[in-house]
Amino acid sequence: MFAQAKGVAEKDLMARNLRLHIFRPGYIYPVTPRQEPNQFYRLFRVLYPALSKLAPNMGIDSEALARARVTAGFDGCELQVLENADIQAMV
Predict the structure, then answer these.
(1) pTM score, two decimals?
(2) For 29-46, how does the pLDDT look when each residue is reduced to its tens digit (9 = 90+)?
(3) CA–CA separation, 62 and 57 (whole Å)
(4) d(CA 74, CA 76)
């Protein structure tokens, strides 16, 4: 249901011809320690550094995502929809 609602919202916003950038990151690795919500997140937090070497486009750390969003907001970006690989290329 979430993906469907997100898709509807994205299409609606793009139809309004706004200056907007839609970010579609993969897994967002939290750089700052936090209480993980479940076992999957705890396990993935441990495995992410090694897995990101094998599959670099599967996720991005939270600080790199923040830098890319600030860059897109202030400097602009040619792409309107940014997938994980596009976001990483900005950093």
Answers:
(1) 0.84
(2) 998 888 888 998 899 889
(3) 14
(4) 6
Eight-class DSSP state of 36:
-
pLDDT band for position 17 (cuts 50, 70, 90) = confident
Q: Which two tokens stand for residue 64?
A: 């790199």
CA dihedral 33, 35, 39, 40 (to 10 degrees): -50
Q: In sequence order, what E strands does the chain have?
A: 22-24, 27-29, 59-61, 81-83
Q: Spell 30-52 as b/e; 16+ CB within 10 A means b.
A: eeeeeeeeeeeeeeeeeebeeeb
